[in-house]
Design goal:
305 residues, mainly alpha, 14 helices, transmembrane helix, transmembrane, EmrE-like
């Protein structure tokens, strides 16, 4: 893969200041949408089995994506793109939803947010390992400082953590790794096809798997339909999987995977705020102080070449 058709090369996407700021803005919108995904997932698993959540979270947006691509007569990706699209799809629409749904049956969304706080660092690491991005030592220092502040706060916060690890924690860590890999591959194809077409083709590539799986789950599952479970499923399948990834991949493609990926350090704080609103948690003022510090470090990271 050459730099001509790939966003993975760090210098290709950071020369233009306006492009970088647009990437930061789109990435921030994606993070805002993603920040409610864990609470929505917690609602969904109250009425649906984790496997059903995984299947329908891929099937519903996959069918919508097929309609969108057909309406705009989008060109079919070339043969070398399909392995990347399929791998990205398996990570983002199967690995992350399944493992996070399993995790949320045993751990609280706020605790899951602790583990998801590793995502920006993992994304930057995978971008460096597989994508030939070469962030500067100063960038790594700023990013590491933000990660330390975030995890130090979250792991000592009452009700959100502790150091003992269980099966739910390990499942959430696996989900975080899947998401990081998907971001690197998805951003690469977003440079070639555009953010929304890249995500749509990723979902369409999974339809041969998601359609028969959806039929099977519809037959064997007996979901407990409630307003919360239905809203949770809709948010995951449409708002997060489609619109969230449209914005996120556009941000990564414009601003660089490692740099824009650090915006996601704010996501765990936002998730805890949503948990406080919808799961009757008490939010201490320190949450907002830490959020401000992390946001300042993220902003500093955006300015480092």
């Amino acid at each position: 893969m050459s730099n001509k058709d790939s966003v993975i090369a760090f210098d290709v996407v950071t020369d233009n200041g306006g492009t970088r700021y647009a990437g930061w803005a789109m990435g921030s919108l994606g993070v805002l949408i993603f920040s409610f995904a864990l609470p929505a997932n917690a609602w969904a698993v109250r009425g649906f089995h984790p496997m059903a959540v995984t299947v329908w979270r891929a099937l519903i947006p996959g069918l919508l994506a097929a309609v969108l691509l057909w309406r705009v007569r989008a060109p079919i990706p070339d043969r070398r793109s399909w392995p990347l699209l399929v791998t990205s799809g398996l990570c983002v629409a199967v690995g992350f939803p399944l493992l996070s749904s399993i995790a949320l049956t045993t751990i609280h969304p706020a605790r899951a947010a602790v583990i998801l706080g590793l995502l920006p660092a993992l994304t930057a690491a995978f971008a460096t390992l597989f994508g030939r991005e070469r962030p500067s030592p100063r960038f790594w220092a700023i990013s590491g400082a933000g990660l330390v502040v975030l995890l130090a706060y979250l792991t000592t916060r009452g009700g959100a953590g502790g150091l003992a690890l269980g099966a739910g924690d390990l499942a959430m860590f696996g989900a975080t790794c899947c998401s990081a890999v998907a971001y690197v591959l998805g951003a690469d194809r977003a440079k070639v096809y555009g953010a929304w077409q890249s995500m749509c083709w990723t979902l369409v590539a999974l339809l041969p798997l998601s359609i028969p799986s959806g039929i099977v789950t519809a037959i064997v599952q007996d979901p407990a339909w409630t307003v919360q479970s239905a809203v949770g499923m809709f948010y995951l399948a449409v708002v997060s999987t489609l619109f969230g990834y449209f914005a996120w991949y556009a941000g990564l493609a414009r601003g660089g995977i490692a740099r824009v990926g650090q915006v996601q350090q704010i996501q765990p704080i936002l998730t805890i705020c949503w948990s406080g609103l919808f799961f009757v948690e008490t939010l201490d003022p320190l949450t907002f102080v830490v959020g401000t510090v992390v946001a300042a470090l993220v902003a500093a990271g955006q300015r480092v070449r």
